[in-house]
Amino acid sequence: MPAFAAMTNEPGSHNMEAGKPDRSTSSAAERAFYRAFADCDPQAMAAVWGQGEVVCVHPGAVPVIGREAVLRSWSGILEGVAALNLRVVLRSRSESGDLAVHLVEEHIAPAAGAPATLVLATNVYRRGEDGWRLQLHHASVPAGADRSTLQ
Fold this sequence. Notes:
The protein is α/β, with parallel strands linked by helices and about 150 residues long. It has helices at about 25-40, 40-50, 65-80, and strands at about 5-10, 55, 65, 85-95, 100-110, 115-130, 130-140. It has a single domain, classed as Roll (Nuclear Transport Factor 2, Chain: A). The radius of gyration is 14 Å and the shape is globular. The relative contact order is 0.20.
């Protein structure tokens, strides 16, 4: 069973309506993104991304541009993963008008008790008619970090 630790340093609820992700705030959209990631759920992942020219940069990879390409990339990552333990720590958040930028630490382990890998991510959210959606996710592993033992 995947485990998802609620975002550290982030107040808020998990307001779900009839199985739809809460997109009432950028923080709620971020929780929905990381819940989809931890649950390895491509459909839930598709529900959090915006339309059009969204961008995703996975660690060590080139940018993936466009909604369909981004969703294919996530499907490839999530496919066949039985369990994922994910802890997310909010380090910075800035919001102005219809844009929000979040800097987070992702602590990712393939199973309970396994060493976690630290990934730093910048997530950009845009508010639209149906709430906040992810527009950009840029993740990277910090240089020089002992990635196999970080918790």
